[in-house]
Amino acid sequence: MKHSDNLFEVINPYSREIVDTVPIASAQQIDDALNSSYRFQCNLTGLDRAQILSKAAESIENQKSQFAQLISSESGLCIKHSLYEISRAVNCLNYSVKQAELIDNVDLTSDFVSNYSQLEPELSVISEPWDLAIGITPFNHPLNMVVHKVAPAIAAGTPIVIKPSEKTPLTAIKFGEILIACGLPENMLNIVIGVPAKTIVDQLVSYPGLDLVSFTGSVQVGKYIAAKMANNGNGLKKYMPELGGNAAFVVMDDCDVDLAANVALGAYANSGQRCTAIRKILLHDSIADDFLQRFVELASQIKYGDPMDPNVDMGTVISAEQAKVIQTRIENAVQDGAHVLLGNERDGALLSPTVVDNVSHNSELVVEETFGPVASIMRIHSIEDAISLIKSSPFRLAGSIATSNRDIAERLHNSIQVGQFSWNGPPGYRTEEAPFGGFGDSGNGEKEGVIMMTRAMRRLRTFYEHRR
């Protein structure tokens, strides 16, 4: 990424061409954005906010072809994945519409009052918007991640300053423009963009007027933000980190092999750049040959290449540098005894769908969150082996299992205690209503999802009326 004193370039990971140049926000401009949003008073009713969100969803749907091309040009994701991301973002907006319609009229007091006595003071529980939320989003979902922070904030009536990834800022800018065109007041949303990212993040999370920081990204940056907040007087402010994942897919000997092989293709969705993507397949030895034959056959049929080609199933990772990191981890795993069954071919940021068998449990390929299109196979002899391997990792975001036995599925689920779990389905499956978020190095237990995030964007206070 190149930049001058006040502009930086957004580069297409596939073609390596400049997509656009973006102004770098100065420290003063960032401070102005924070102050303007902090001082903003939202006078819109919940129905007003719902109407804005509904219009935005309709506008994005009407422009989905242009949006998909923009997402793919700055991220390298294939058009198929970009179109899917748009559908998720529209779905999030529509669920946020429902929350906006309800939230101002929810009677929270009744949830906290029972066996009320006329002799007691009368309790009222007040829900109101925070003064300011901060959202920081990654590159892997340029639209969806921004929408999942901004839409609940609008539904709640809370002003938000959002910092999208400097690698993929153009989609966020376009989304902001749509919201303003749909009637969102200026300063209810401000978008700040620039490089270096660390300097901007430091300024945002140190702002004394913030009430909440919602961050999605790596473990290292997530822990850094927590420390930065604590060291700058914001240690007790609400922090919602959605950090890395290292999801395991357990394939047991009693599973439907064809179903399991198809589920395992989730390792390549979004070029493997999803926090809930399958990172490692814990494969029971007794069905290893059958599963690998079917899985490698399916993975070899994935067409990868030019993200703009509508027939392509997988585009690039975010940069050639990231692809090199992934390939180095694969090669190190091979030196430790693993075998590449498919792939490990690279051209710049384009890395082919890869299957690596017999990966050591202490290989960097599976110990770290390898953010790319690699399915790492680790052999197991029992469900106890699977539980032990999964619990040796500090990540606790998602997991799944293929088995015909519900008791085994529930045993794994209850033993590893991840934030979300699927039986005979991908770990990345989620619905907008459901709580979402992990534990350990994956998060602090704070939950996203439209319902939980909208509620998190509100302040609760109590008022007691004492009778004479």
Task: Summarize the model shown.
By secondary structure, the chain is of the alpha/beta class. 40% of the residues lie in helices and 20% in strands. The strands form six sheets. A seven-stranded mixed β-sheet has the order 11-14-15-10-9-17-18, with helices on both faces.
* Termini gap: 69 Å
Strand content: 15-25%
What best-fitting shape do the alpha-carbon axes yield?
globular
Second CATH tier, the architecture of the largest domain: 3-Layer(aba) Sandwich
Provide the domain count: 2
Largest sheet: 7 strands, mixed
Class per helix and strand makeup: alpha/beta
Q: How confident is the prediction overall: mean pLDDT? A: 95
Low-confidence stretches: none
Multimeric organization: single chain
CATH superfamily of the largest domain: Aldehyde Dehydrogenase, Chain A, domain 1
What is the fold-level CATH name, i.e. the topology of the largest domain?
A: Aldehyde Dehydrogenase, Chain A, domain 1
Helix content: 25-40%
Radius of gyration: 23 Å
Care to count the β-strands? 20
